[in-house]
Specification:
This protein is largely without helices or strands. The protein contains 1 helix and no strands.
Length: about 120
C-alpha cells in the first residue's frame, strides 16, 4: 500500500557534516587535475637488473649469493649477536677467574642466601 500524495514538499535527508578524525594523507584531486606522466619526478624499477654486490653477477643479490656457489666455496657462517670487545683477552680472563672462584669464597652471582 502506498502513502497518499500530499501538497507538502518531499522529505530530504539531513545535510552531511564531516566527523572529527585524522586528516587524509593525500588530497582528493578533481577530475580536471589528472596527473601527467611528464611531470613525474621519480623513476620506476621496471627493467632494472639486480646485480650481486659480492660477486657482481646479475640475477641475485649479496644475501643469496652463497646459493650460487658450490658447497666447497660457501662462506663460513657469521657469528650471531653482538661482537664482544677483546674476545681473546676476555676468554682467558674468565677462564682464570673461574678456576680461582671455585676455591675462594668469592661472591657468587644470583640471589643472595636467605637470612635466618
Amino acid at each position: 500500500m502506498m502513502w497518499p500524495r500530499t501538497d507538502y514538499p518531499a522529505p530530504v535527508p539531513p545535510s552531511y557534516t564531516r566527523q572529527p578524525g585524522r586528516p587524509r594523507k593525500v588530497r582528493i584531486k578533481d577530475p580536471f587535475e589528472k596527473e601527467d606522466n611528464s611531470t613525474r619526478t621519480t623513476l620506476g624499477k621496471t627493467g632494472a637488473v639486480m646485480t650481486c654486490e659480492h660477486c657482481g653477477q646479475p640475477g641475485h643479490n649479496q644475501r643469496s649469493c652463497h646459493r650460487h656457489l658450490s658447497p666447497k666455496q660457501k662462506p663460513a657462517p657469521k657469528p650471531r649477536g653482538r661482537p664482544r670487545k677483546n674476545s681473546q683477552i676476555n676468554a682467558a680472563a674468565t677462564a682464570s677467574q673461574a678456576s680461582t672462584a671455585c676455591t675462594s669464597n668469592a661472591r657468587k652471582r644470583g640471589r643472595p642466601p636467605k637470612k635466618a
